[in-house]
Give the backbone structure.
Amino acid sequence: MRVVIAEDLALLRDGLIRLLGAFGFEVVEAVDNGPSLLRALTTHRPDVAVVDVRLPPTFTDEGLRAALEARKQVPGLPVLVLSQHVEQLYARELLSDSSGGIGYLLKDRVSDVKQFVEAVRRVAGGGTALDPDVVAQLLTRHAREEPLQQLTPREREVLGLMAEGRSNAAIAAKLFVTEKAISKHTNNIFGKLGLPPSEDDNRRVLAVLAYLGG
Amino acid sequence: MVEIHRYGDSLEDRVSELLRKYWRRALSCTLPSLLRGVLQIVVAFAVNLPLFIVAVLAIAFIPLGVGVVLVPEVFRAIRSVADQQRTWAAEWSGVKIPVPYRPEPAGLGPFRRLGRLLADPASWRDLLWTIVNVPVALVLGVLAGGLALYGLEGIFVAPWLAWVSDYGWGPFWPLKDWGVVGIAGPVVLGAVLIAVSGPVGPVFLKAHALFSQSLLAPTRAALAARVEQLAESRSETVDASAAELRRIERDLHDGAQARLVALSMNIGLAEEMMKHDPEMAAKLLAEARESSGTALTELRDLVRGIHPPVLAERGLDGAVRALALTLPLPVDVHVDLPGRAEAPVESAAYFAVAEMLANVVKHSGAARAWLQIEHSGGRLIMIIGDDGTGGADPAAGSGMRGIERRLAAFDGTMAVTSPPGGPTVVTLELPCALSSPRISPSSGTG
């Protein structure tokens, strides 16, 4: 799997190259600023890009903008955005074209190597990986509202994991139950929230996020 | 021969060059002085005089109630005329007249607004200027513009008019009886007057500017009061930032720093155990990872409290939108800023808004809130409203008092209207300039 990395701190950049290399990714280019990121993304068209939000020259949201711009030119280009802090505002902007292949995680998550690599693979496959912090914020924001209050605690837990972008199988593994039990939960959730049921993992996630974000 | 020719030529050249230069300079002063002098007179009679009369009437009508509404409006008009005079004094004569008015918090009731206005000595000095300026502008305006005007009349009007009527001009009266001198005289004298008016006109304009300065600039007492206010807000700011630094130090010392110590200890232990107890080593490493995660979370919260990263990345606009998205109630956000304020102002504005919105969440019981930010008249204006139960008292809450202090460091003001039963509306104002046009984000969501 070909991957482009954008990270301005040499220590972290080398760490990411080593980490992804160890799991069989081929790092085609590692850049340290916004303009070269946009160029690298549009010329290499990698299977997935791992991008830091804040990059030179302005040290603002250079990386995010380059990623959004690249996705305009190459629709559906899978991008996993990493940041020291997560903002719902940015999550919305990343998900706004609803074509999948989006990840948005705190940099801390890299320390759980297995989960991080799984997230990169999921994004490369057109799926979604949303940081638990963002999902938790979304859920607290709507916690007081009517349909969410009808969910059982277990269903709320499943909804959170679903919003992060996990498949039924992954949720089942995480909660130590069968996949069948999870699919029963998800059907209940979709029923209570009035969302159309869908087998496609990614469409399912986007429906949940649209529901929570709106 | 050649030498002499050149010499003569250059002397002639020099003289004519000098004359031309003098005339050009004189004329370049004459026409503006003329127009400015006339403008001063016109403003004095057409604006100052009626305004003064209306102001006196409005003050007289205060007991009848009409004046309560009328007086602030009249004084606002007087201030804008005075501001125009300040601009002219600076542009025409280089006389700087600082603005002495005390900042007026928005959202005051009509009586308090009137009280503040009448208690401000600058208001009364403005009023005095409004009436005294009428005769002063007349005399100085006539001297500044009149010389040139009279000279022009001497050249272009007087000689011809004499033959139509019995008109005379200056010393030539009646002109007809003076014959040829009666025609040539006014032309020559007029030219002299115009030549003289060139350097003289600006002097009278400057005299007028200095007169305006004596009444429109802040008095010594006002400056002293201002110095006192600045000293107070400065010491409050210094105290607040020292307390802030102490808090940060404590948070770092007890939080991230302590966790990093534990972390390196765990890693060191794991290193030791690697050989004879790999299972224990793995457990220690897992613990180390967990405590590094906690340290990172604490650092992130700390950074948010010092300067939210999204504020650095997206400015006030993006930061308040991001903030609104994290609140448990819907907030309508309208931001209309053509540029970005300076970083300290932006930060003060952000934390003020954040504190107000936190109050809405904690105390108001509101179902909705709204936030409006715009920049007008050199001020950043932030209005936060909610549909809650009202009854917010800025004196009671230390949070609101803290915001007021924080804004005072920038000469900002806070006004709260919160009747029991609601709604609560808080208006924050910060004087500031906006710089460089905004680099708009690639996506307009939010």
